[in-house]
## 1
Amino acid sequence: MRKLPSSRGFTLVEVLIALLVLAIVITTSLAVFVDRTRRLQEATETILAYQALSNEAEVRRRIAYQSLDTAPSFFVTDKTVLEPLQPYTTYVTVADVQTDVKNVTMLVRWRGGKRIARLAILRVNTGGTNLW
């Protein structure tokens, strides 16, 4: 009686399972990488929007209290920092909260209005100059 040669290597089932595991690992890694890239993009855009809001808040803080209602309803500062967010829109609203208190709200919208950054400051009529 003749002995059968011992088989070497992997069976087809073992190879298919190994390929399945490899495909799951690669797919998961790719999904994590894509999500990380998306979150990094959103964070960068948010930083740019809040930088522009901060710049505008500084300008609105220096406008004389009596002139707040007649100030433009768009950003008066340089909006170059917002260029990567194109197309975007900027708004500024002034609302009376109490006597001698106004709420100045600045807003940046981008990605078709899906992303919004908002900053509000309270201005109080202290009777002094526009610096304090």
## 2
Amino acid sequence: MSIIAWLVVGLLAGWIGSMIVNRSGEGVVMDIVLGIVGAVIGNFLLMTIFGATMGGIVGQLIVAVVGACLLIGIARMFTGRGRARTL
């Protein structure tokens, strides 16, 4: 994929992932970072578990969204954001 395609897929995947987990976007730059890092994480997990990755832009978008959701969930575990507060 070209760098423009990486940025577009990263933006879409990061935005979709943050909408699923947070119900709001994180901002354009952070959504791109989440999507690209999410794609790397998702592809790494697919290669490790199944020995192959998904091809095409739609396949990469799906993998990147799943990876972005995992990344946001892991970040929430370490930062404590999103935990229920008790009185």
## 3
Amino acid sequence: MNRHQLYLIRPNFLDQGKGPFFCPGCAQMIGLLDYYPALKQDLEVCVVDFQRPRLALVELLGEEYQSCPVLILRTAPRSLPSNVNMRQANGRYFVEGADEIAAYLAQACSSGLPH
């Protein structure tokens, strides 16, 4: 893996026949990428369907880690912001949730911090 992988849920999904919906955390990540387009050089953005199992994530992290947004890191981090909870599964390091991903990217890729 050459770049971090950012997994987002495809918008306009149905849940139990209702919707269409979007994932607020995933929309926040799309906004961050629009604010800081240089981040796209360090990220491979992968879009998955809302329905589970989300096979791409199951293959990478295991069945218990299918939440989005999730950032799978290319290598083990050297340091972390204090408000970021790093997880590990199947030999991969990852960060879940829009706010924690944004904080990690601000440190690792020099984008702005959430205020």
